[in-house]
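Sharing a chain and its predicted structure for anyone who wants a worked example. Both blocks are below, sequence first, tokens second.
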Amino acid sequence: MDTNSIGFIFKEVKPDAEQEVEVSDFFDNVPSANDWSIAEAYMCLLLEAIFADDIVAPAEQEYMKALVKRCKTFAGMSENELARINMTVMERRTERPDCVKEACMALPPGMHKTIFAHAIDIVLADGEMHPRERDFLDNLMQTMDISPETARNIMQVIFDKNRF
């Protein structure tokens, strides 16, 4: 998929002359299994859910923007910081075929179920689940070591939530 034709979810913003301390600076002290920060890994997996079917539906973009605004991992980050994270993730997606595995390894296991639920919400945002989206979710479930029973429970809650 040509991500240049899709564009970024968070457009690059030019930094102010005097930049304040970014929330992501606090994540620098959290150990990671690789060079991914928690925020980068989280955004990578959300973007992978959006790009799974090679179609970026407006509903998926809106879900992503709303999630980033309310998610504690991204809370307080400036538009500049979100744009930098977005650019880093997009570059790594292009350069690293195992970016999903790398991102999963960088996240604390306690975040896996939550991110899995958000990924399901994203793929269902446009009202349908493409076979490639299903494959992405299956791969994500295995990579995050989420049991099939737990995955089914999460999916059922998301399906029920989206029905009403």
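Comments welcome. Residues 68 and 74 are 6 Å apart (CA to CA).
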